[in-house]
Amino acid sequence: MIYLDNAATTFPKPISVCLAVEDCIKNYCANPGRGSHDLSLKCELKIMECRERIAKLLNVKDPMRIIFTSNTTEGLNLAIKGVLNPGDHVITTMIEHNSVLRPLEAMRSLGVEVTMIPVDKEGYISIANITNSVKKNTKAVIINHGSNVLGTVQDINAIGSLCKTLGVLFIVDGAQTVGYLDINVEEMSIDILAFPGHKSLLGLQGIGGIYISPNIELKPLKEGGTGSLSNSMIQPTFLPDKFESGTVNTPGIVGLSEGVNFILNTGLNNIRKHEGELIKQLTEELRKLPYIKLYGELDSYIKAPVLSFNIEGFDSSEVGELLNEKNFCVRCGYHCCPMIHKIIGTSNTGTVRVSPGYFNSNVDIEEFIIAIENIYKLNF
């Protein structure tokens, strides 16, 4: 089996991640922050170690501003529902994932005004469109840093600077870029950054996080036990406890910590270079085939390692089934991003999405190209 669906979840994981999770479950997986015994304290230290590693990766000064969530979707819901109030205006784009679009639709029904700006066929946002969409009641701009459909990477330096100048909050969906691109939350003027643990950070499913800037006040999505101020019925106001009610996913956090450590030791540049070369090879080989339609940005070194395409005469789901029969794992369909398909002309077909990861090889790409050629030849 050749796995090329890393934009959904990276697989396989580094051995160090697997061993760390196993060690946690077998030897010390107690309840962090809820006891004075050694096992509880060890869990708490491991969780703090993960916050510190993520803070180092994202250039965050205070690790306590890293909040653990179950995934990016929870982080974005926390950001959107914790910031916006009836009467507020928010700007977002047509390339966003449903993890942004759906909570915004829910907030719209409560009286939040939403402006959806278009992108071009390569997936890029016009800075001028953002500027022209700002109103007196604009509260935030929400941007997908890297598209999970096209791989397009937005200029969040410029967008963050604009938001800072305009005095509006800048919320970033980092699902496809955290762990792949260099991100400096202060230099990029990011107020909230949501990210998953199971994609480029090489951790497990069921864990993610959110960075919250000191500049903003955010309402929690939930209240409950935190292990702190337990004699009070009032939710703590200090971080991270304000947003981490209930028992956190200790094995998931331990795995995430080792995934981040693997990235820090390997180097983002080395990871990006390898994955960029794989996408370049894939793009160049598919462009040689006249029956292939490619979508979005095709410069492999300025995008996330994601490529969408279709085969002439095939629905994307049909291609996915045929590839699965040949032992290739890819994603087909609409990728939880309904609006971008209207722009690139794939509303009726979706796309086949290929997303190699750090543990893929050039041979994997060669075999994938052969499989695509054979699918077309055998059916036409």
From TrEMBL:
InterPro entries: Aminotrans_V_dom (IPR000192), Cys_dSase-rel_unknwn_funct (IPR010969), Cys_dSase_SufS (IPR010970), Cysteine_dSase (IPR016454), PyrdxlP-dep_Trfase (IPR015424), PyrdxlP-dep_Trfase_major (IPR015421), PyrdxlP-dep_Trfase_small (IPR015422). Its cofactor is pyridoxal 5'-phosphate. This is cysteine desulfurase. Belongs to the class-V pyridoxal-phosphate-dependent aminotransferase family. Csd subfamily. Gene3D superfamilies: Aspartate Aminotransferase, domain 1 (3.90.1150.10), Type I PLP-dependent aspartate aminotransferase-like (Major domain) (3.40.640.10). Keywords: Pyridoxal phosphate, Transferase. CDD domains: SufS_like. The keyword Ligase does not apply. It comes from Clostridium punense. Residues 2-368 form the Aminotransferase class V domain. PANTHER family: CYSTEINE DESULFURASE, ISOPENICILLIN N EPIMERASE. It holds the Pfam family Aminotran_5. Its EC number is 2.8.1.7. It is an enzyme of class 2 (transferase). It catalyses: (sulfur carrier)-H + L-cysteine = (sulfur carrier)-SH + L-alanine. The keyword Magnesium does not apply. SUPFAM superfamilies: PLP-dependent transferases. It comes from the Bacteria.
